[in-house]
Every structure is written in C-alpha cells, then in structure tokens.
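Exercise: predict the fold of this chain.
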Amino acid sequence: MHKPLQILILAGGVGTRLWPMSRQALPKQFQKLVGQKTLFELAVARARKLASPQNIFVATNQQFTKVVKKQAPAIPPKNIISEPAFRDTATCLGFAAALLEARNPGGVFAVVYADHLIRAEEVFVAKIRAAAELADTGKIAIVEVESEFPATQLGWVEVGQNLPPVQKQKVFALSKFVEKPDLVRAQKFHASPKYFWNTGLFVWRSDFLLSKFQAFLPDTFARLQKMTAANFAPKIVAKEYSACQKISIDFAILEKVDPSEIAILPAKLGWSDVGTWESLKNELSKDAENLVENDFVAIESSGNFVKTNSKKFVALVGVHDLVVVETDDAILICEKSHSGKVKDVVKNLEQRLEYRQRLI
C-alpha cells in the first residue's frame, strides 16, 4: 500500500436488544460490559494496532460526540465524524467515504465496530492488513468469521472458489450474501465449510466505494457531492444528510456489486457482536450454571443470567434459562432464547409518549 491504512470505527448504534441497560443516552458500546474497559475503548485499542490516532476516525451520532472524546482522548477531534441524523449504514459510510476521500484521495479504510468484541486481536490485525492490500487493488475485501453455532440473528455469506492468498492469508471469491436464516438453514450453514457469519468488517478505497454510490445510490451520491463541494459546512451537511435514503449498506451497495469485485477473508476472531443478553452471558461465562453478579442462591434452577445495579440478594427457585436485568427504572424478564426480541420492547415504548423519553 502506498498510503497509510485508515480505520473507521462505527459508534452510532443504540443497541436496543440490550435494553434496559443500553439506552439512547448511553448505548452499549460506551459501557463496561465485559471488563474494565468499554466496548468502544477496546475497539480503539485494536485500531491503534493498525493505525496511528491521526488515521483513526469515529463515526457517531451528534449526541455521542462528548462521550467519544472522553473515552478516546488521543483521537483528534477533527477525526470524529458527527452524523446529524440516524440514516442507517449506507448514508453513514457514504458520508465517511466522502470526508476521507477529500482528505486523503484514493486512501484505503477499514470499517470496524465499537460494539463488537474480538478476542483474537492478532488474527484480526493480520486479516485487516491483508484485506487492505486487496482493497488497494480495487476490491471490496471483507473479513468474515467462521461460525461458532447456527446463528439465526446474523447474516451469512457463501464463498466460492479459492483466490490467491494475500500475506499468507486465505482468500475466497464471494458466491452470495444470505439474509438471516431460520434454524434449519442455519444448521446447514454451520455444518458447511462454505458459509461464514457476515460481520461487516469491510475494507475498501474511499474513491472505489463512492463510485458504487454513484452507480447504485445516485441520489445519495449527489447529496454527498453537495456536502463535499460545500467543504462539509454544518448547515449543508445537516440538510443533505437528513434527506439521504435510509437504507443499509448491504441492500444499497453490496448486494448489487458484481461478486467478482468482492473478496472474502475467513477468520477465527473470537468474535461477538454482543447483540443480545444471551450472547453477553456467553461472553461472560459459558460454563456457569447460573450467572449472577450479586450474592445468590439457586434451587433447582439453571442457565439463568441476572444482572442488577443494586446489591440485593438474589434467590432463584425452579427457574431455567431466564434473563433478568434490573436498572433504576426498569426490570426485564425474558427467556434467554427470546432475548433477541427485546428490541420489540423498545419499539413498543417508542409508541407510548408517557414512556418514550424516560425509558428509551
């Protein structure tokens, strides 16, 4: 690569499936869920293994810029990309690509996530570096994760033929993207060496990505051009960004790109999106019969996860595979296998004026 690799950390999500702890005021990525550092702080530390702070960027919603500055003081304030509205990943990544292209024409940047947990950090670094070399040649390189179980809450990719290795890393051609499957299909995917979890760890050149916006999302591309021409003046950005189509990068761009332009690098990353209470429990302890932060007693009970911000003693009697989460103003009780549906609670609260501001 002829230019330094840039890292873009996406930190604008709200994490509704981890309600009631994850709220709009302080989403999961800014909380210490799996240790003494927040997920965002861990993401920044990983990024530092690939790039200097001057080449690390954070895309986040305007309301989170203060906490980003507090938790990542080494990142220059000009590298914090403030989104004026929630417009999904296509607009977010297009806006970031336009900014990075203006600063560093033709530069390569990797997309990583503030709320992902990656245990195998050295493997991650090696894969991203190899992906960057591929991306510099005009490819979309995606680091995808070998499945650990038949996930129904994640998208998958099917790979095709082997491509020449890069930096001693395996590379596959893309066959197709697969939407979140039912359990039967997920079990088939998990058993096959041709399928991987689609983690969204993209690496590409900023000019190459923008060319795909021009081809497949022309209205958004035109608005990005207006923002660039105005040197990203806040008033113009607020107006044009908010008018962009709300759509994911997957639907807008990736599923329309010629598969020959995409390369897949498989990896064992010890990866989790920490997307549900069940996945958080598994990250904290896969072996504990009951995982309870407080003093507790369990009688004929197993597989439970209890998280509370109080010091109350917890007693479990005859209950199995429950998630119980207590905050100052809410209590969640659900079956562990249904924890992915917690986001529906938030959707319900959004429709109820008396709860909207207080509980989400």
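Check your answer against the key: The first strand starts at residue 6 and ends at 10.
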